[in-house]
Write a structure and sequence with these properties.
Elements lengths: L4 H11 L21 E5 L2 E4 L4 E4 L14 H13 L9 H12 L5 E5 L2 H16 L3 E5 L12 E4 L11 E4 L12 E4 L4 H11 L3 E6 L2 E2 L5 E2 L2 H13 L3 E6 L10 H6 L5 E4 L10 E5 L1 H4 L16 H16 L2 H22 L5 E5 L2 E5 L8 H4 L4 H14 L1 E2 L8 E2 L6 H20 L10 H8 L1
Parallel strand pairs: 3-17, 5-8, 5-9, 9-12, 12-13
Antiparallel strand pairs: 1-2, 2-3, 4-14, 6-7, 10-11, 13-14, 15-16, 16-18
Helix pairs in contact: 2-9, 3-9, 5-6, 10-13, 12-13
The structure holds pyridoxal-5'-phosphate.
The site of pyridoxal-5'-phosphate has 15 residues, from helix 4.
Length: 451
């Protein structure tokens, strides 16, 4: 049994200065399970009790090359010598922007921000300015950051299908009800639902905000048919199509989900993998739309274009563009799926994988979920219990099947063998304890409860 004595003690101390003892609600896993990290290297991290984990959370995706990558950290150190932030531009902004445009054809013009939230917030503002329409559509189960316009979710856990669409609820308190009418939601892969909403409300809707592989919702993936239909509906109804690539960008392909699925956004957003974990994000897109910035739309921020993050982004993108890093991450993900599948099939456990091998959802059901509503038909209680056993054995995954497993370049053959070995043990223990312990943590529920 792993000891979390120091983490538990630290939690009590932290609670006196930090709400929930952490710096983001999603890191709070309960008073006896909240982890504090000592350090990370490659695909592994160590908590303050010195427990070692092979990490498949990777900070929700950023560490595409692995933690403390020497190549990126060296570049970041050089960025430090530039001096930080000046509230003035530096030459590197142009260089990084040019590389992004080369990798992602939709990114004709680029603006830098600091977080995914900021980038998506800017994208929505630009879309509103461009169309003169304030409303937006989001997919059910979609997550786009912590600003009020997108902090609404579809309550599928309590949902009764006979009663119609799931109820839309705010993510926690403090989200103003007054902006609720701006928000519309549709199930993934249901172009008819999009068309129905646009027929009725197109005069109020300026943006369709979509994660084409839903990195916060099982890695559910948009079909090419759906993307094609949505693309043409957006064109027909003067709606800006924003593809949020905060998780998929520079991960599922060099050109992100757009390259993988053959679609071109009007605006797109990037963050996580962009600088291997250094804080930087991007809103980019069609020149005529992006030119609204500076021509009516304000975008800025004291820390935007920070010399350390820019240098890290420059090096990370150079590696991702010029080496086969993404191909090797994809191969690791595919090998992992085969290994996990063999273990589960040998025990007659129905399962399926969803998404791209570099960010994979694992489900316990005969059929993979096709949209968020389907997720409730999977055995997520088994997943939650299994995740906790994996933690005990040193494999870190989110204890909620809605968050995919993330792969990085540093996941190697040793990681694979160790993961499969421990997964097999964890599955057997979970089956033994199949009266699943009701104290399992469900961060998504906490996400909802705590906002
Ligand atoms: C698709 C997507 N958009 C936006 C965000 C918000 O990014 P950040 O947490 O950097 O603000 C996230 C975060 O997980 C995300 O996955």
């Amino acid at each position: 049994m792993r000891s979390l004595e120091k983490s538990n003690q630290h939690f009590k101390k932290a609670l006196s200065k930090l709400p929930l003892g952490v710096s983001s609600n999603f890191r709070y896993w309960g008073e006896d399970k909240t982890l504090y990290v000592r350090r990370g290297k490659g695909a592994r991290l160590w908590d303050i009790d010195d427990n070692e984990y092979i990490d498949y959370r990777l900070g929700y995706g950023p560490a595409i090359l692995g933690y403390a990558d020497e190549r990126v950290d060296q570049a970041a150190r050089e960025g430090m010598h530039v001096g930080g932030v000046f509230a003035l531009g530096t030459e590197l902004e142009y260089e990084v922007a040019s590389r992004i445009s080369r990798m992602v054809p939709a990114a004709e013009l680029v603006r830098f921000s600091n977080s995914g939230t900021e980038a998506v917030m800017a994208a929505l503002r630009i879309a509103r300015a461009h169309t003169g329409k304030d409303g937006h559509i989001i997919l059910e189960g979609g997550y786009h950051g912590v600003f009020s316009e997108v902090m609404w979710y579809s309550e599928v856990e309590e949902w009764v299908p006979e009663d119609g669409a799931p109820e839309v609820m705010p993510y926690g308190n403090g989200v103003p009800q007054i902006i609720r009418p701006l928000f519309h939601s549709v199930p993934l892969n249901d172009a008819n639902a999009v068309e129905d909403i646009l027929k009725e409300h197109h005069q109020d809707i300026g943006a369709f905000l979509i994660e084409a592989i839903m990195g916060n919702c099982c890695s559910l993936t948009a079909s090419s048919e759906f993307l094609r239909d949505v693309r043409s509906l957006c064109d027909r109804y003067d709606v800006v199509m924003i593809i949020d690539e905060v998780k998929t960008g520079f991960r599922v392909a060099k050109g992100g989900a757009q390259e993988l699925l053959g679609v071109k956004a009007d605006l797109c957003t990037f963050a996580k993998a962009l600088a291997n974990g250094y804080p930087i994000s991007v809103v980019a897109g069609r020149e005529d739309i992006m030119r609204n910035v500076g021509d009516g739309v304000v975008h800025g921020g004291t820390f935007t274009g920070h010399s350390v993050s820019l240098a890290a982004a420059n090096k990370t993108l150079e590696i991702l563009e010029e080496t086969d890093a993404l191909a090797s991450i994809e191969k690791y993900g595919t090998d992992l799926q085969h290994g996990l599948s063999k273990i589960l099939s040998a025990r007659g456990i129905a399962h399926s994988f969803v998404g791209h091998p570099s960010m994979t959802g694992l489900f316990f059901s005969d059929d993979p979920p096709k949209n968020y509503r389907d997720w409730i038909n999977t055995d997520y209680a088994f997943y939650d219990a299994l995740a906790l056993e994996l933690h005990e054995l040193g494999i870190l995954v989110e204890p909620d099947s809605r968050e995919p497993w993330f792969m990085c370049e540093a996941h190697d053959v040793e990681c694979l063998a160790e993961t499969l070995d421990k997964f097999e043990t964890a599955v057997d223990i979970t089956i033994e304890n199949s009266q699943a312990d009701k104290s399992t943590i469900n961060t998504a529920q906490k996400r909802r409860k705590n906002g």
